[in-house]
Amino acid sequence: MEADALSPAEIEMDSFLSSWFGPAKSSAKEIGPEFDWIPAGLKKWYEITSRWEIPVEGVKRLIPPSEILEEEGKFIFLMDQGGWAWSFDLTEPSFIFEAKDDEPWRRLNADWSEMLLWHSFSEAVEYAPFTQWSSNASAEAANEVLSNFRKVSFTDSMWPSPGWAFYIADGMVADAGPSKWTPDSFSITVGASSRESIASLNSPTGIEWLVRQK
User: Fold this and answer.
1) Alpha-carbon gap, residue 165 to 174, rounded angstroms
2) Of 175, 203, 207, 180, whose CA–CA distance to 191 is shortest?
3) How many whole angstroms separate alpha carbon 43 and alpha carbon 31?
4) In terms of C-beta density within 10 A (0-12 exposed, 13-18 middle, 19 or more buried), how is residue 214 classed?
5) Which of 11, 176, 181, 204 is the most buried (most CB within 10 A)?
6) Distance between CA atoms of residues 4 and 172, nearest Å
7) Would you say 137 and 188 are in contact if contact means Cβ atoms under 8 Å apart?
8) 175 touches 121 (CB < 8 A)
């Protein structure tokens, strides 16, 4: 872990979710007894997702319990459009596995709670009220933008590609990593809860930002 990185354990889950997805509903969608075979950690995902209305068809797709199918001994519960998938194994229900396309399943070190926070971060970045992004920032420019944030030392997931990380600041979240479109450049996306937050971002010249407001 980097010396200045923020541990996920230091982020209060309820406060983070409330700040990005609104207050929690008083009730959650119940998971019926027919799904008692699903790991308890994943059941908690479904409960929290429904209470805070975290997108289930967002950056990644959270598969409904009734649609979870076995594939070579693994049960896939989360997917994205880029060929990534996350699964569990009934013989090791405390662990989460990930793979891209036809790669072998790789066991992650994070527990279910940390993975839910990691998943929620990716949805918060993309579904923030105010979002700006660039796919061709220089390393110097990316570092200057990210100097406004603290890196979150999340799980060893390789999604969406090696070298990517998440960051948090007051009223803002971000992700960044090597650009797959421009060699020696970086992609960076900043999501903000308010126009004031994103306007206060210390952004260097030379970055060609694309901007979206919901």
Assistant:
1) 8
2) 175
3) 7
4) exposed
5) 176
6) 18
7) yes
8) yes
Q: What confidence tens digit (pLDDT) does each residue in 77-119 have?
A: 999 999 999 999 999 999 999 999 999 999 999 999 999 999 9
The one-letter code for the residue type at 213 is Q
Strand pairing category for 186-192 and 130-137: antiparallel
Cβ atoms of 85 and 97 closer than 8 Å: no
- Cα 48 from chain centroid? 15
Q: pLDDT of 33-84, one tens digit each?
A: 999 999 999 999 999 999 999 999 999 999 999 999 998 899 999 999 999 9
The C-alpha atoms of residue 119 and residue 113 are separated, in whole angstroms, by 10
User: Phi and psi for 192 in degrees, rounded to 5?
Assistant: -130, 145
Residue 193 CB neighbour total at 10 angstroms: 17
Please give the Cα distance from 155 to 151 (Å, whole number).
Answer: 12
Helices (H) and strands (E) counted in the chain, each on its own, are 5, 12
- What pTM value is reported for the model? 0.93
Distances from the Cα of 45 to the Cαs of 30, 49, 55, 119, 182, in angstroms?
A: 12, 6, 12, 10, 36
- With beta carbons less than 8 A apart as the criterion, state whether 177 and 163 touch: yes
